[in-house]
Every structure is written in C-alpha cells, then in structure tokens.
Write a structure and sequence with these properties.
11 helices; mainly alpha; Hypothetical protein af1432; two-stranded antiparallel ribbon; 211 residues; 4% strand
Length: 211
C-alpha cells in the first residue's frame, strides 16, 4: 500500500468521524412541528422530507434544474442548526429574527471551516442563494411545516405550542405571508400556488373548515 493511498484513507477516516459527530448532533435538534404521536420532528427527519419533496417537484415541474443538486442542497440546508438549534419563526419578532439570522450566519461560517470540502462547498453555495436549485430548496423548505401539520392533525404545533384553536387565529397574516413569498421567489409561480393550497389544506385538517 502506497503512502499516498494510506494518507487518503486516513483523511477519509477523519472526515467520516466528523460527519458522524455532526449527524448525531443534528439528529438531536428538535423542530417545532409535531408528528401524529406528539413527538417533535428532528432536523434529520426534516432534511430527508425536504430532499424527497424538492427532488420530486424539480423532476416533475422544473426539468431544467439538476435534481441531484437539489437533493444535496436539501441535505445540507439546515446544518448550522447543529450549533444554533431550531428557532421557531411563527409570529417571531423582527428583533428575534435578526438574532436568529446572526447566530446562523456565525454557525455557517464555523461549519464551512470545519466540514470536509464537498459538504463545506455545498453549504456555502446554498447560503449564497444564487443557483436556482438552492432557491427552490429554500422555497419548498418553507412549505413543509404546514404539510407536517396536515399529517399530525390534532397533534399540531398550532394547538399544542402556540395556543391557537381557531381558524381566524391561524389565518391572521396569511395574505402578508403569501405576498412576502411571492416577493422573495418571483421565479417560482407554481410553488407559490402549491404553497397556498397546502396552507388551505392545513387549515382544514387542523381546524376542520375551509371557511
């Protein structure tokens, strides 16, 4: 066995241990959405859900996009939360949102220096939000909590954590949220329409009414 091959094997060994440690920490991060049994979704579960969802949307409706890159961005998109944890954003104040963004920026910079080269590069590219695949992933990411609430039904975060028990309570700010998404992602009209349908279904599922 050559010295070069031995060096590569040692490097790969070290990378794999780093990624294992990251995965363990990442899997321990609980998110706001709850599953039907009341348990919270973890960041690892969320990232898998995002990957298969964004891949399917890209393959079916945006064939010009690189589906493999969509999957890769999905898997790394929340890695900074391995340091910061997940901060709930429903009804968050501007001040707290600014703190969240600053903490995630610092965590991202730290991870980019720590991670193996390919994963580090992917995270850096995702955070720049220049490539259409990265932007699609970020948009789809914003739909998933509502989808989990549909699956969860009575175990929804709105009731259990936010104390919202009426349709009016959850619909507050709906038009503003949709307008903001349209402004952020003007190139994805279809995803905006899907997002609206998901919200309507979520409202019906959790509160039992379309009205």
């Amino acid at each position: 066995m050559t010295d070069d091959l031995t060096s590569k094997a040692q490097q790969a060994h070290d990378y794999l241990l780093k990624l294992a440690d990251l995965t363990v920490r990442f899997a321990a991060v609980d998110r706001a959405p709850r599953y039907p049994d009341g348990d919270r979704e973890t960041d690892v579960e969320h990232s898998f859900h995002l990957a298969i969802s964004a891949m399917e949307l890209a393959a079916d409706y945006y064939p010009e996009l690189d589906v493999g890159l969509v999957a890769q961005f999905s898997l790394v998109h929340d890695l900074p939360e391995s340091y910061t944890g997940d901060v709930w954003t429903f009804g968050i104040s501007d001040e707290d949102r600014a703190k969240k963004e600053e903490a995630e920026k610092e965590a991202t910079e730290k991870l980019i220096k720590e991670l193996p080269p390919h994963i580090s590069q992917l995270l850096e590219r995702y955070e720049k939000q220049i490539e259409p695949e990265a932007r699609l992933v970020r948009f789809v990411d914003k739909m998933l909590p509502a989808i989990i609430n549909i699956v969860a039904g009575e175990a929804s975060t709105f009731k259990e954590d936010y104390g919202i028990y009426t349709l009016e309570g959850i619909q507050s700010g709906y038009a503003e949220r949709m307008a903001k998404l349209q402004s952020m992602f003007p190139e994805f009209d279809l995803i905006l329409l899907i997002s609206g349908l998901i919200e309507e279904t979520s409202h019906q599922s959790v509160f039992g009414s379309k009205e």
